[in-house]
Design brief:
51% helix, four-stranded parallel sheet, 4 strands, alpha/beta, globular, 6 helices
Length: 179
């Protein structure tokens, strides 16, 4: 049963997603909505697979860090001063609580390299719909729960994330000995 759900997820990510992006080239105003739909479908199918992972990666976009911070965290998130001006402090605390890997990526190339280096069993990813949907496709068949970031100041600038959704995704993906 799990394999059929993973197969369905693969069909959606490898066939439907490219079709949606093709359609999105003609209807640019609908492209983000189509990417959001793919993320929601993927999340639903990952949840139906009921994965149980010991090595979880929490992957964050660089824009979640406050823009005028003196420290750039893309190489080492633990350099954060934890001043509380952005959510990095809270995300580090979540990562420490659950014992998971936590990284900030400046884009898709770095995110793919992090996934390759960390070798997670599952990923919780936060990003805009465009980066999230393409990242989910790139990392298939790994189970990825995608959480679109909130952009109160526009794209790629002082973005936010619902911390309760991050915790919920990590708890869902975490290893369950009875599973």
């Amino acid at each position: 049963m799990v394999n059929s759900k993973r197969l369905l997820r693969g069909i959606i990510l490898k066939i439907v997603y490219p079709l949606f992006m093709f359609i999105g080239t003609f209807f640019k105003s609908k492209k983000e909505a189509l990417q959001s739909l793919i993320i929601r479908l993927n999340n639903r199918l990952v949840k139906a697979e009921r994965p149980s992972a010991k090595r979880i990666l929490l992957l964050l976009p660089h824009c979640i860090q406050i823009n005028d911070c003196d420290i750039r965290l893309t190489h080492n998130i633990m350099l954060c001063k934890r001043c509380g001006r952005c959510e990095i402090k809270d995300l580090i605390a979540i990562g420490e609580k659950y014992g998971i890997s936590l990284y900030v990526a400046t884009g898709g190339t770095l995110a793919r390299r992090i996934v390759k280096d960390v070798i997670p069993e599952a990923i919780v990813a936060v990003a805009c719909e465009r980066d999230l949907s393409s990242g989910i496709v790139d990392t298939y068949p790994l189970p990825v729960i995608g959480i679109p970031n909130e952009r109160p100041f526009g794209p790629c600038f002082n973005t936010r994330v619902d911390l309760s959704l991050v915790k919920e995704a990590i708890e869902f993906l975490s290893y369950k000995p009875d599973a």
